[in-house]
Automatic annotation (TrEMBL):
Pfam families: McrBC
Organism: Bacteroides zhangwenhongii
Name listed for the protein in its UniProt record: 5-methylcytosine-specific restriction endonuclease system specificity protein McrC
Keywords attached to this entry: Endonuclease, Hydrolase, Nuclease
Regions annotated as coiled coil: none
EC number(s) reported in the record: 3.1.21.-
PANTHER family (UniProt xref): PROTEIN MCRC, TYPE IV METHYL-DIRECTED RESTRICTION ENZYME ECOKMCRBC
UniProt GO MF annotations: endonuclease activity; hydrolase activity
Length: 351
C-alpha cells in the first residue's frame, strides 16, 4: 500500500477505471478482484493486459522521416550528401523519405516504461513475466530518455485511440513516479501531489458523468462578472477561471474544486485553518457565476483525506451562497467512496 497517502491500491484502480473508461472492458475487469501491495504492480498489470490487447490489433504505425543511401531514387534527394558519394565513386543517392514504422514515439514510450518496470525490484515476478512476454514484439523499437517526452504534443486520432489510456498510465509512471539515481539509473518513488491531484480530479468528474446522468456535468469556464462594455481592457488582464467540476440540476448549480494535498490544513498562529487561497478561489467562482444573486449557486472544496487528525468539514453561507468544505476518504472500500460522492450531490438536490 502507499505510505504517503491513505489510499488503497485497489481504489487507485477504480479511480483510473472511471478516468479511463476502457479499463471497464472485459480484459481488465478481473483486476478489481486482485490484491496489489504496490502501485507499481497495479500499473504493470494494466500495461501487460493493455499491450497484449493492442498486439492483437497490431502496434500503431506512423510515417517517420528517414535518410538512407540508395542505388535508386526514393523521396527527395539530399544534393550535398549525394555529391559526396560521387566524389567517393559511389553510385548511390542520399534520399530523404517518410516510412511507415512501428518505431514511433507512442511505442517508444511503451517500451521505455516496460523496461523501467522490469528493473523495479518491488514489481512482482509474475507481473514481470507478463511484461517479458510482450517485450519481444518491441525488438525494432527504440527506448528513449523519459525526460525528452513532450506529453502535450502527443496527438490521438482514430488509428491510435486505443493508446490513450496506455499513454496516460505511462505518463503517471514516467512523470509521477520516476526518480533518477546518482548513477543515472531510474527507480520508482511515489506519486507526487501534482499527479495524484490530476487523477483525483478526473475521477470525480467522470464518476458523476457515469453514475448520475440526471446531472449536467461539465468543467465550465466562469466569466468575470464585470461591465463588458466599459472594462474590456481589464477583462484581458484577468486570469481565466476554470472550474474543476460543475454540477447542474433543476436550476441549481454546485461548483466543486477538488484538492489533493499532503496537508489539507494550514497552521496560523498555532491554529489549524483551511487554506486561505482555496476558500478565496471557490468563493470567487461562486459569486462570479451567480450573476443574478439568486443563491442557487453553491461551492464546494472537496479534499482527499490524508493522515491529518483534523478533517476539513464545513457548511456555511457567505453573502447568500452556500459554501461547503468536505473530505473524501479514499482509504475505505470503494462502495463507501461512491456513497460519499452520492451524498455530495444532495447539496444541490435538497438545498
Amino acid at each position: 500500500m502507499t505510505n504517503d497517502k491513505n489510499i488503497l491500491i485497489k481504489n487507485i484502480y477504480y479511480m483510473l477505471a472511471y478516468a479511463f473508461q476502457v479499463l471497464k472492458r472485459n480484459n481488465y475487469a478481473s483486476i478489481a478482484s486482485e490484491k496489489f501491495e504496490h502501485i507499481e504492480d497495479l500499473f504493470a498489470e494494466i500495461l501487460s493486459r493493455g499491450i497484449s490487447y493492442q498486439l492483437k490489433q497490431g502496434l500503431y504505425r506512423e510515417y517517420v522521416p528517414r535518410t538512407e543511401s540508395l542505388p535508386t531514387m526514393r523521396g527527395k534527394i539530399d544534393i550535398t550528401k549525394t555529391i559526396k558519394h560521387r566524389i567517393q565513386c559511389q553510385q548511390l543517392l542520399s534520399c530523404e523519405f517518410d516510412e511507415l514504422s512501428e518505431n514511433n514515439i507512442f511505442n517508444q514510450i511503451l517500451k521505455t516504461t516496460i523496461s523501467i518496470l522490469l528493473q523495479e525490484k518491488i514489481v512482482a515476478k509474475e507481473r514481470k513475466n507478463k511484461l517479458k512476454k510482450v517485450l519481444p514484439f518491441f525488438v525494432n523499437i527504440n527506448t528513449i530518455e523519459p525526460s525528452i517526452v513532450k506529453w502535450n504534443t502527443l496527438y490521438f486520432q482514430c488509428n491510435n485511440q486505443t493508446y490513450k489510456m496506455l499513454m496516460n498510465i505511462c505518463y503517471f509512471i514516467l512523470e509521477g513516479l520516476l526518480q533518477t539515481t546518482e548513477d543515472g539509473k531510474y527507480h520508482m518513488a511515489t506519486f507526487s501531489d501534482e499527479y495524484m491531484h490530476r487523477l483525483y480530479e478526473k475521477f470525480v468528474l467522470e464518476y458523476y458523468k457515469t453514475e448520475h446522468p440526471e446531472l449536467k456535468t461539465s468543467t465550465s469556464r466562469i466569466k468575470w462578472n464585470i461591465d463588458y462594455q466599459s472594462d474590456n481592457k481589464a477583462l484581458e488582464l484577468l486570469p481565466c477561471m476554470q472550474s474543476d467540476i460543475m454540477l447542474e440540476y433543476n436550476g441549481r448549480t454546485l461548483i466543486i474544486d477538488t484538492k489533493y494535498y499532503s496537508q489539507t490544513m494550514q497552521k496560523q498562529y498555532n491554529k489549524q485553518t483551511l487554506h486561505s487561497n482555496n476558500l478565496y478561489q471557490i468563493f470567487t467562482y461562486v459569486k462570479n457565476y451567480d450573476i443574478q444573486n439568486s443563491s442557487n449557486v453553491a461551492g464546494m472544496l472537496l479534499y482527499a483525506k490524508t493522515i491529518n487528525e483534523i478533517t476539513p468539514d464545513l457548511e456555511t453561507s457567505i453573502c447568500g451562497n452556500r459554501i461547503y468544505v468536505k473530505t473524501l476518504d479514499l482509504y475505505t472500500d470503494f462502495k463507501n467512496i461512491a456513497s460519499q460522492l452520492d451524498e455530495t450531490i444532495s447539496y444541490i438536490k435538497i438545498h
